[in-house]
Write a structure and sequence with these properties.
227 residues; little secondary structure
Length: 227
């Protein structure tokens, strides 16, 4: 049985390798499928990330993992360079809790808070993607383009409080893990039972009635659901 990882666990922190360590690495070491140092060079506020340094390397089609946060990216967009990583298997971008306000000495609002507000259509380029995690963002719907990812097994959108349209999720027939904790959802699609392979479903922190809970359990008898 697959057990859902608690939604409050954040993706692993990205660590930049010290220059002294890099100098001691042999020339045969290949930067590729386990490259995690993505966000260290992603510092622009626009959708386009400068193709220099690490980011240029990460455009390689050998990259399989991308972990970052909107705070590190200083952007509310998934970088365009990510959608060039055609062998990407794991994508995680942690958003920010924007329930605060920062002002300067003159009372001006200088709050810097970035949250991804949509999953762009280019997501369909990532045909090898197996896991997608976009916690603590402002995503409002699951786009139809996401359903083109036939290898996707885990979708975690915890704490996207404005997520209201999830109808397309039922077309992700190979999905095994679905995290929708803290999304203010009151009802799942009527045909949620189409997710025959779903093993773990997170629905804690939503507005789901007892009647709806029972319907979900009956529709997904082989799935462990957390309310």
């Amino acid at each position: 049985m697959c057990v859902l990882i608690p939604h409050f666990l954040n993706p692993p922190s990205v660590m930049c390798t010290a220059k002294s360590t890099l100098r001691t690495m042999t020339n045969s070491l290949t930067i590729g499928t386990v490259l995690l140092a993505i966000s260290c060079s992603s510092t622009t506020t626009d959708k386009t990330v400068n193709q220099t340094g690490f980011d240029k390397q990460l455009s390689s089609d050998t990259t399989t993992m991308y972990y970052a946060s909107t705070a590190q990216l200083k952007s509310r967009y998934i970088p365009d360079s990510v959608f060039q990583m055609t062998n990407l298997q794991h994508l995680s971008i942690q958003g920010m809790d924007c329930d605060y306000r920062e002002v300067d000495d003159k009372g001006n609002d200088i709050t810097k808070c970035w949250m991804i507000n949509e999953i762009p259509v280019q997501i369909k380029n990532l045909k090898q993607l197996k896991t997608l995690q976009l916690n603590v963002n402002a995503i409002s719907k699951i786009p139809i383009e996401l359903t083109e990812l036939k290898n996707l097994k885990s979708l975690v959108l915890d704490d996207n409080s404005g997520l209201s349209n999830i109808d397309n999720v039922v077309k992700l027939e190979n999905l095994e893990t679905l995290g929708l904790n803290g999304c203010n959802i009151s009802k799942l699609p009527n045909n949620i039972g189409q997710l025959k392979k779903l093993k773990s479903l997170g629905l804690a922190g939503n507005n789901i009635s007892a009647t709806e809970m029972e319907r979900i359990k009956k529709a997904l008898p082989n799935c462990v659901t957390y309310f």
